Amino acid sequence: MDIPVIEIGVLPPDPVAPDALQGIKRQQTNPSRWQGENWSTFVNALAEQGIEVRQDLASCGIFVTDAGGVAYGMPHGIVVACSAEQIATLLKVAQVYHIPVTVRGGGLTTEGESVAYGGVLLDMTGMSQVLYIDTEKLIVRTQAGIFWHSLAEVLRRRGMDYLSAPLNLTSSVGGTLGVGGIDVNSSRFGCSADQAIALQVVTPTGEIVECSDTENPELFKRVILGYGQFGVITEATLKIRPFTPLKMHYFYYRPVGPISVA
Ligand SMILES: Cc1cc2nc3c(=O)[nH]c(=O)nc-3n(C[C@H](O)[C@H](O)[C@H](O)COP(=O)(O)OP(=O)(O)OC[C@H]3O[C@@H](n4cnc5c(N)ncnc54)[C@H](O)[C@@H]3O)c2cc1C
Questions:
Q1: pTM greater than 0.90
Q2: Which ligand 1 atom minimizes the distance to the CA of 113?
Q3: Do 131 and 221 reside in the same domain of the chain?
Q4: Is residue 51 included in any domain, yes or no?
Q5: Smaller CB count within 10 Å for the chain: N or C?
Q6: Least trusted range by pLDDT, from 27-36, 141-150, 186-195, 238-247
């Protein structure tokens, strides 16, 4: 690995943070593309288990980058998630043939965390069903590929709401629990991940495990904010609350006039 040369003192001191290190070149943190060893054998092994891998350019090209648009990678193939059992089989076969698997929900990361640099991209949007809502215990159990706006639609029909979700609602529950998630309610209710009471997770070796603060707590702690590195979240039990209508306030300002640029 090349050690970056840090030239401190070349630029004038930063007026806001005089002790800031300036002039550090942005480092390439994304891995180089995996080259595809054993790929065809792997795809055939999955086909024997009834798992389809989409390999056409159109299917793969959709996932070439994330919302940030600064990292680019092309998966060798896409598997659309449909059940924890299917994902468990995928991960077990991937272990045998040493195939990288990248999990993706809404793909709203900004630094390429949900971009596959070769291998399989596991598209979680195929698992988007709400499983049950308990309005007395104030919990919902949902598949983790669901987008927050879809979850909100289902909850609000029952007079309920989630506690906190990213303002960009086309992120998924699983992806958000994988990174944290904050919104205007977070100061009162915590981050999105704080709503999670229990999770169903498929571990990298293909076990389907239920985890929470009391059941397999080590896995629970690692999967939350784990960026998909410690397992695939397939279902989540989340805290909910009664729906309260949103109040919007609009502030109107007089035009400030043309801004002169020196
Ligand atoms: C325009 C814009 C606005 C945003 N606004 C906010 C905001 O208001 N608040 C906020 O907190 N964030 C915000 N973000 C960041 C973004 O919302 C989060 O990165 C997002 O919540 C992640 O959800 P996702 O489904 O898009 O996850 P992805 O980007 O698909 O994945 C996020 C990470 O989790 C992993 N992952 C995905 N699904 C799973 C799963 N089922 N199990 C395990 N790991 C998984 C991925 O591999 C990746 O590492 C914003 C981003 C953009 C581009």
A1: no
A2: 49
A3: yes
A4: yes
A5: C
A6: 27-36
Domain stops at, among 84, 100, 125: 125
Q: Which residues pair with 44 in a beta bridge?
A: none
Q: Mean pLDDT over all residues of the chain?
A: 91
**End-to-end CA separation in angstroms for the chain:** 43
Task: Tell me which residue has tokens 């059992």.
Answer: 85
Task: Provide the 10 A C-beta neighbour count for residue 80.
Answer: 18
Domain containing residue 220: CATH number: 3.30.465.10
- Residue whose CA lies nearest to ligand 1 atom number 52: 108
For a pocket test of ligand 1, which of 30, 109, 230 has the largest count of ligand atoms closer than 8 A to its C-beta?
A: 109
Q: Is 79 in the pocket of ligand 1 (CB under 6 A)?
A: no
Q: Is residue 220 part of a domain?
A: yes
- 49 phi, psi to nearest 5 deg: -95, 5
> Ligand 1 pocket test: which of 80, 114, 124, 208 has the largest number of ligand atoms within 8 Å of its C-beta?
114
Percent share of the chain, pLDDT over 70:
93
For 158-193, the pLDDT digits (tens) are 999 999 998 888 999 999 999 999 888 888 889 999
Ligand 1 atom index nearest CA of 233: 42
Is residue 165 in contact with ligand 1, taking CB distance under 6 Å?
no
Q: Do 66 and 108 meet the contact criterion of CB atoms below 8 Å apart?
A: yes
Report CA(149)–ligand 1 centroid distance (Å). 14
Distance CA 195, CA 219 (A): 17
